[in-house]
Amino acid sequence: MLLPTWSIIHSRHWKLQVPDLARRCRVVTFDGRGNGRSDRPAGVEAYRPAAFTADALAVMDATATDRAVLVALSAGTMWALELGALHADRVAGIVFVGPALPLLPPDQRRGTHSFTGAMLADLARGSLVTLSGSGHAPHARDPVRFNLLLREFVDSLAPPARPRQRSWTHALGRHRRALYISSPIGLGHARRDVAIARELRALRPELEIDWLAQDPVTQVLDAEGERIHPASALLASESAHVEAESAEHDLRAFQAIRRMDEILLSNFMVFHDAVTEGHYDLVVGDEAWDVDRLLHENPELKRSAFVWMTDFVGWLPMPEDGQREADLTADHNAEMIEHIARFPRMRDQAIFVGNPDDVVGDRPPRAGGAGLRPRPVPAPGSLRPGRRPGRPRHLHGAGRQPAAVPVLPARPSLRAAVSRRPPARPLPGRAANGVRRQRPRRYLQRDRRRGRPGRRLPAGRDRRRRPSRPAHRRAAVRPPARGRP
Length: 485
Fold this sequence. Notes:
Blueprint: H1 18-22, H2 49-62, E1 68-73, H3 76-86, E2 91-97, H4 117-124, H5 138-141, H6 143-157, E3 177-182, H7 189-203, E4 208-212, H8 217-224, H9 238-245, H10 253-258, H11 261-278, E5 282-286, H12 289-297, E6 305-310, H13 322-342, E7 349-353, E8 396-398, H14 414-417, E9 431-432, E10 435-436, H15 441-449, H16 462-465, H17 471-476
Parallel strand pairs: 1-2, 3-4, 3-5, 5-6, 6-7, 7-8
Antiparallel strand pairs: 9-10
């Protein structure tokens, strides 16, 4: 049971947890009194902790819930504790999230009580998990990590009736497998992805491809005889959401994607379960924005090579939506850039399907739209969004007219980028500045006196066997002149 918190917020703050939990157990949630669809009684006495405790008990009775795990946020800790103390037989366990309890004297400087999660865990003899940087509502800021922790706690209290049958295959004995994620949003994705999969099989005939997709993509896959992953039936419909958003033939893409957060999070949890159990060598995501973003927020969850494909990069605000949308798009763009700069290993390959001119540049503000220009995102990876970049660094282009051609120049070698000064006096016969230097002439003369063959190859042969060194390396290993220190 997901309990309500302060009366200033309704039960939709649990929206990122309900779909994932509902696939494993029965979930009960309700609006607290004073908000949502619940009554709004007048008077202070109607909002005492005892009243909320009675409401939770009444909901359990009305839903025929004999025993439940309680999850409480902030002020909900008070009525969760009271319900557990007065009706212990109805409570299997309690998860306290950012508990707000008056266990310590009020902080006179702030006029509030301290949040006492560590003290509560110690008094209840429970486990303490600290999510640094997640704020007072980690279930909203870092929902993936929170959901995994919540799963772990619920499973520890209610183990399955039958032990799970598990198997494992030696790495070299596994078949080559790929998981292909094809978005139902957009035009032509399904046909394009089927053609790519056909080409992958031509290159690797032994490759097995599973598809994690939903309607209407699954219709195309069925017609092509492709194998659809069973977890596809658990995906929430993205196309239905977009259709509802564009019912008036006016689709605001940025706001539509923002309001699709619970769908994207739910589908990512399905993806996480699929790759955890599937042992895939490669994951290909065509417009898999949920997978790309949430892997960057949870980099420890990456389990295989990841190829990300997209038709568009970055967000632009609608001028008529004002400054707020301009600020939001700028924040999303900046966060995307920071993600890729901080965790470049998340994308093993990023392919932009389109033309380089389609990438958003540093455009001047439109007429009458002063102050509405966001920080542009020419492509993920540019660290200075206010400056017109040359070529994007983390995307490879796949133009619609010609074949897929990389648009990124090769990265200069580290040795050329970092200049290294040679030592003042290289030691004879040893490496200097990372380059093996030739033996000085006096060693060659000593070998001849002792009857040993010289170490230098005959003229005309060393050019064929040993590549010539660049001029700067020959200068680095030149022996010092006689008479100089």
